Amino acid sequence: MPIVLDCEVISDEVAEDGSQRNTKRRCTLAVDAPYIFKKLIGVEVVYFLQNNFLDWANRTLNIEAVNESFSSRIEIFERCRYYAHPDNPDWTCFDQTATLDIKNFFGFEHSMEKMGMKQYTQTTLKGKEIIEYFINELKAEGITEVDRWKPPVDAAASSISRQSSKDMEQENGIADVHGVKRGSKPEILLDGDFIAKHLGQLTPMQESKLLELRKMLEDCEEDMSKLPSYQTILRFLRARDWHVSQALSVLKDSLKWRKDNSIDNLLDDYKMPAVVTEHFPGGWHHYDKDGRPIYILRLGHMDVKGLLKSIGTEGLLKLSLHICEEGIQKIKQSSESLGTPVLDWSLLVDLDGLSMRHLWRPGVKALLSIIECVESNYPETMGRVLVVQAPRVFPIAWTIVSAFINDNTRSKFIFYGVADANTMKEGLEQYIDSELIPDFLGGTCKTLVHEGGLIPKTLYKMNSLEEDEQAEQAQQNKSMNEHGRATNNGLNSDHHGLYKTVELKTGYIHEVVIRNTDVKSVLTWDFDVIRGDLHFTLYRVTKDLPRQQDAAVSFFDLNDFSEGVNYFKEETTLICHHKESVQGSHVMNYKNNYVLHWFSPSCGIEGPTQLNYFYEILSSANYKGSMTSLQSGFSSNSATSSCQSR
C-alpha cells in the first residue's frame, strides 16, 4: 500500500505442531492529509501496531491493528478476517470492520473524523486491488492452490486446533434464525467436487447466489429434510436470470403448490387411466448424447378432443405432471449412472398429422394452462426440444403457444419441417445416437410409444367441453360475418364443432367471404377432401360482393368482375384429390374482401364431392413475428400423412 512506508516485525511465534503463527508488527504510515494540517499537528508519519494470527488447522487469518500515535486522543481499531466458508470449504470469506473514536484533537475533531472516513474508504478499495494483484502474481508463478495443512503424526494438537467447529461458529456468529448452528443441519456439503459432479460448471458468483438462496430457504423452513435439492434451487435461479429475490418468491410458491397438491406422492399415487395407456401417443425413449432422458410425443397423432372428453382438463394436467415427475427421477438416475451433471431432459415432438383440428379451442386452452403450470413449477427441466415433421399449419400453432413459453425455453427449440425430411435424420444424429433414432423418423429403433389415433366415443365422460365449444363456435360465427353457400340439396353440418361439411355436384362451387378490416392479420385454413377431387384458390376482391344464391355460379363469373382489375388470385390454384388434407395460411395485407374458393370439376359414382373445412383469422395484434405468404401444403389423409410442400 502506498501509505505503508515500513513494517518492523516485533515478534513472530509459531506453535510446536506448525498449526498456528502469531506475528506482531509496528507499521509506519504516511499521513494522507493537507499540508497545513500536517504542519499543525507536527507529524509526517504515524505508527500502528498490527497483530496477525494465522491458524492453519481451522483455516483462518485474523489481522488486528490499533494506532500507537496519538492513542490518548484518538482510538482507531481495525479487524480483517479471512476464513473458509462454512458450507463450501473451497471459498474464502473476507470481512473488514473498523472503529474510530476521536476524544480530542487540537480542536480539529470534525475535520479529523472526515479525513479518517475518507482514508478508510480509500484503503478498503485499495485493499481489494492488492488482494487481486497478489493472486495474479501467484498464478503467474503457477500457484493456484495451497495444500491444506495436516498435523504431524507425532505432534500434539494445539489448544486452538482442538477447538470444535461449533465453537468456531459461535465465535463467528454463524447461526440461523432459529438459533441452530449450520454445522448441525443435515445438508450436503456444497464443495467443488459436489458442484462438478452434480451441478456442472458454475461461476463463483453463481455459486454464491446458489448458496444465498439455499440459506434464505433454510430460514423459512424449520424441517431441513423438506428443503429442495441444490439442483432444484439452481433451476429456479437460472429461470429468474440469477435474481435471488425473484427466485425465492417463485420457489416458495412452488413448494406451497407441491404441498397443497401432494405432488411429492404423485409417482406413487397416480393411476394411469386406461384411455391414456391405450391411446396416448407419448412415452420415454432412451437417452440423448448428453445423457438426457428423451420423451417422445407424437402430437400429430393425438386425439386432443377425445382425450379431453375422456379424462378432462384436470386429468390431462395430472398426466403432464406425472411425466414431469418421472423426468426429474430419470434425470437423477442418469446423473448418478454417468457420474456427471444431468439437469434436464429432452423432448422429441413428432408433428406428422398435425392439423387445425389440434387447435380446437378447449384443447388449446387446456394446453396453455398446462404450460403455465409446468413453467411455474418445473423451470429449466427442458434441456432441448426437437420438433420434427412440422407441417404448414405449425407456424400458426406455434404463434398461439409460444407466447406462453418463456424466452429461455423457446431458445431450446430446434425445428425440422416436412421439407427437411431428407436431412432430418442427419440433423437428429447430432443429438441422438443413430441406433436410437425411432423407426418412424427413418431410424432403426423400435419404441414403446403408442401411435395414438381416435379415441372411441364410448370412452367419453366430459360433456361440459362440448358445451363450451358450441358457445365458442357461436361467438366465432358471429364475429367472422361469413357468407357461405352450398347446393340446395347439399349437406351443411357442424363437424367436430369447428369444422363444416358441404357436398358439391359437378361444376358447383363453394365460396367463403372474409371481410378484412385488420391489415396484417393472418387467414388460416384446414380442409379435407372426403370424396372426389376439388380445385382450391384464394382470391382478393377490391369491390363489394353481391349476395348470390346460385351455387353453380361464382362471383368471378359475373360480368362486372375482371381478374387483375377488381379481383386478384392471392394463392395459386391447388388441385386436391380424394382423401387429401390441406393446410394453409396467408397474411392479409389489404382491407379488402378475401374469398376461399372451392370448385368441383366432376363427381364419381360414389356421389357428390364432399368437403370438410375450417378457417380462422388471427389478429395482427396477436400474431407475433413476420410471416410471408405461404404456399398451400397438402398430404395424403393416412396414418403416415405429411405435407409434401410448405
TrEMBL record:
Residues 272-449 form the CRAL-TRIO domain. It holds the Pfam family CRAL_TRIO. One of its GO terms (cellular component) is cytoplasm. It comes from the Eukaryota. Residues 1-143 form the PRELI/MSF1 domain. Residues 467-494 are annotated as: Disordered. PROSITE patterns: CRAL_TRIO (PS50191), PRELI_MSF1 (PS50904). This is Protein real-time isoform X2. It comes from Glossina fuscipes.
